[in-house]
Design a protein that fits this description.
- There is one protein chain.
- With 473 residues, the protein is mostly beta strands.
- It has three domains: 285 residues, Methylamine Dehydrogenase, Chain H; 52 residues, Helix Hairpins (Orthogonal Bundle), CATH 1.10.287; 50 residues, TATA box binding Protein, subunit D, domain 2.
- 11% of the residues lie in helices and 44% in strands.
- The protein is built from four helices and 32 strands.
- Strand 14 and strand 15 form a beta hairpin.
- This is Transcription initiation factor IIA, gamma subunit, helical domain protein.
Length: 473
């Protein structure tokens, strides 16, 4: 195919310094004092807090995907073959819709117009739901084992990649799928994909190491190969720079400025890359790149790996600005850039359950937050002590101890969420009787409909006014 290249023919096609200058000059890489390659300890940097507003509990098994839009809608997909949709204007704790699937729901996404929700499961089934009336717009069963899914930035066009190496494109009309198109690879699984800012090209990565830049209108593509399965992809919002992460731990910068070819401009290797080929194969999974994310305001790149390391690079030179290693050595799965009071912030989520927030200027850890833990309980402390002893005696690795504690926290959170609800929504046709005595209210209602579609002929509610003072006997 035209434009095919391998890493043996890496060219310095353009200078990053010739690209448009970032909007925030005070964060230029010229200031060496802001650069750092030291590891920051979680304990030394800051304390751990839980400052979440609230928690949503609906899935019976692990939650795999979450999407939020317009500060109103939230969707989630889980291992229990179900996707849930929450509407913050209706309830902050009870989902307004349950979408049943045939397999684990691994991707959920809202369209740019904030009118449609797509949910996709591992088998390849995709369901399009209308947010206006919560009705199904379309059901798509074209994919064979879904790998990824994303919406077009301006149109109601959905893209997806599957195990057969096909990139699918569907135009969603008022009555369902109005048009579809396929972009065939060479049979190797299309593991990741992302639309370029121009909306006319799509960058896709494959399990055989191929990276293709698809031209959506004519179906042509340019390709390079990095000789390692592609695991992550991203493109800069304003500069002609793309990046793919691979299972070998490297991130590859790509020049996407040419109309007819794709070129690798730089390889950012993992710090502890092993030269011996046998050892490299053994550590491939540990150093696999899980996420790559360009900063939208300048030429910085965040790379999170499966071994718990987070690196921030200068894309112009490949210089490592900062390097962080999570004590748990568990994968960094997501990275999000933002500006807070003119300070560049990088927020990352990890498999160990922590959300870590960094000052990207020097890579220092500013804050950690986490899903509510119960390790300070009597049972939790006993479990912690036992695990510490096992780790000290080298009977189990530290990673296993962290995983056990995470499962413990999750199990208690789930049990408590199922035991009591903060709010209950119902509708009754008739209030038969009520009574107030000794600070206790009693209501007797008939034909009561609950949010989960259960109807009860007669219900008795008993409530106590907790704000009032109890009289002593």
């Amino acid at each position: 195919m035209d434009g095919e290249e391998t890493t043996e023919h890496v060219e310095q096609v353009f200078e990053f310094n010739d690209l448009p200058e970032p909007g925030h000059e005070e964060y230029s890489s010229d200031d060496e004092e802001q650069q750092s390659t030291s590891n920051f300890s979680d304990v030394e940097a800051c304390g751990v807090i839980d400052d979440s507003s609230f928690a949503l509990q609906a899935h019976e098994q692990d939650c795999f995907s979450v999407a939020v839009i317009a500060e109103r809608w939230l969707a989630s997909g889980g291992e229990d073959d179900v996707a849930y949709l929450w509407d913050n204007q209706v309830s902050d704790s009870v989902p307004v819709l349950k979408i049943d699937h045939d397999d684990s729901v691994i991707h959920v996404a809202f369209n740019n117009g904030q009118t449609l929700l797509s949910t996709g499961d591992m088998s390849g089934k995709i369901i399009i739901t209308q947010l206006l009336d919560l009705k199904t717009r379309a059901k798509i069963n074209d994919c064979n084992d879904l790998e990824w899914m994303c919406w077009h930035t301006t149109s109601d066009i959905l893209f997806a990649g599957d195990k057969d190496g096909i990139v699918w494109m569907w135009l969603i009309g008022p009555r369902g799928v109005a048009q579809s198109k396929v972009y065939n690879g060479n049979g190797s699984s299309c593991t990741v994909g992302g639309l370029l800012p121009d909306g006319k090209r799509l960058l896709a990565g494959y399990a055989d190491g191929a990276v293709r830049l698809w031209f959506l209108k004519d179906g042509n593509s340019a390709m390079v190969n990095v000789n390692s399965a592609i695991s992550a992809v991203h493109h800069h919002v304003s500069q002609p720079i793309g990046v793919v992460g691979a299972e070998n731990g490297s991130a590859y910068l790509l020049n996407t400025s040419h109309a007819d070819k794709l070129t690798i401009t730089m390889e950012l290797i993992v710090l502890s890359k092993v030269e011996d080929s046998q050892k490299l194969n053994e550590t491939a999974v540990e150093t696999c790149v899980e996420c790559v994310q360009f900063a939208p305001f300048n030429s910085w790149l965040a790379v999170g790996r499966n071994d718990g390391t987070l690196c921030i690079y200068e894309t112009a030179s490949g210089t490592l600005r900062s390097n962080y290693a999570a004590p748990s050595s568990q994968a960094i799965m997501r990275a999000v850039w933002s500006m807070e009071e003119n300070i560049p912030i990088l927020c990352v989520g990890s498999v160990d359950g922590f959300v870590r927030i960094f000052d990207a200027r020097d890579g220092s850890l500013c804050k950690m937050t986490y899903y509510q833990m119960y390790r300070n309980t009597t049972l939790g402390e006993a479990l912690q002590k036992t695990l510490d002893d096992l780790v000290h005696e080298q009977m189990i690795p530290p990673q296993l101890a962290v995983k056990v504690l995470a499962i413990y926290d999750k199990a208690i959170n789930k049990a408590l969420a199922q035991k009591a609800k903060n709010k209950m929504y119902f509708k009754a046709e008739k209030l038969r009787a009520y009574r107030h005595c000794d600070n206790v209210w009693t209501f007797l209602m008939e034909r009561v409909d609950f949010r989960d579609s259960i109807r009860v002929a007669r219900v008795k509610f008993v409530a106590c006014d907790g704000s009032a003072k109890l009289t002593s006997s």
